Amino acid sequence: MVRLLLLRIILKIFCNRIRDTYDARAGRYDALVRMLSLGGDSEYRRQAVAALRLRPGDRVLDVGCGTGLNFRWILKAVGPAGRMVGTDLSYGMLRRALRHPNLRLVQATASRDIFKPASFDAILSTYVITTLLDQEMIAPILGALKPGGRLVIADDTLPPGWFIGPGFMARHLLKQGWPDLRGRTLRMLRPWVADLRVTHCHLGMIYIISGTKR
Ligand SMILES: C[S@@+](CC[C@H](N)C(=O)[O-])C[C@H]1O[C@@H](n2cnc3c(N)ncnc32)[C@H](O)[C@@H]1O
Question: Of the residues 61, 89, 134, which should be mutated to test ligand 1's pocket, given the most ligand atoms within 8 Å of the CB?
């Protein structure tokens, strides 16, 4: 009981730190992503959204959507009858996202169960797992996805927490080494997600995991 409480407090401190960092850096985020990907970012996003195999009218959730860099691909694929929701911890990031009549933005942590079970046809999360440093978000994501729905998780293989700052990153590397988040995510998804596939881009620095909920 005490251990659980302590874990919750630590997670809250983490989340606050992450939220404050993204709030403060939101204005520079899109430019930074473009620079670090040497302009390739749009293509990786297009590939991640293609792996969702969206159909017109689908309902899609983008978890940790940030400034909404995936939105245009998703909205195009689901068309005027489709609906999408973007969630993020950081209001500063959400404030910069596109507004669209078929899009709802929600400020919330990914680990909270805020959607009705099986309410989405497809769920995407790009570059969030690495920042999150733990996998608490997987259960609420799987719960919100319909059986037969597509799940796509893309991320980079840089040291976890690098964006938050060198001190934060170093503390985590010292504590838990360099975790294999791609492997961990795959192992966790395997019982719930069929047809798991991993593709790589950007000289192997970016991976896209996709599959279908059983
Ligand atoms: C590297 S950015 C990625 C943003 C966007 N998905 C993209 O591909 O550009 C990580 C995002 O995850 C959000 N984030 C981090 N931890 C989160 C959590 N526990 N719940 C929801 N969002 C979170 C951050 O606020 C930030 O906007």
Answer: 89
Q: How far apart, in whole angstroms, are the C-alpha atoms of residue 200 and residue 154?
A: 9
Q: Whose CA is nearest to atom 13 of ligand 1?
A: 64
Domain ranges of the chain: 2-213
Q: Which of 92-96, 187-191, 192-196 has the lowest mean pLDDT?
A: 187-191
CB 91 within 8 A of CB 23: yes
According to the model, what pLDDT value does residue 7 have? 65
Question: Which residue puts its alpha carbon closest to atom 8 of ligand 1?
Answer: 126
Closest CA to 154 of 56, 73, 93, 57: 73
How many Cβ atoms are within 10 Å of 201's Cβ, its own excluded?
A: 18
Backbone angles phi, psi at 163, to 5 degrees: -70, -25
Q: What is the predicted pLDDT for the residue at 134?
A: 57
The protein residue with its alpha carbon nearest to ligand 1, atom 12, reads: 64
Write out the DSSP string of 26-82: HHHHHHHHHHHTTT-HHHHHHHHHHTTT--TT-EEEEET-TTTTTHHHHHHHH-TT-
- Across the chain, mean pLDDT equals 89
Residue ranges lining ligand 1, Cβ < 6 Å: 15, 18, 22, 33, 64-66, 69, 88-90, 93, 109-111, 126-128, 131-132, 163
Q: What are φ and ψ of residue 127, in 5° steps?
A: 60, 40
Architecture per CATH, 2-213: 3-Layer(aba) Sandwich (3.40)
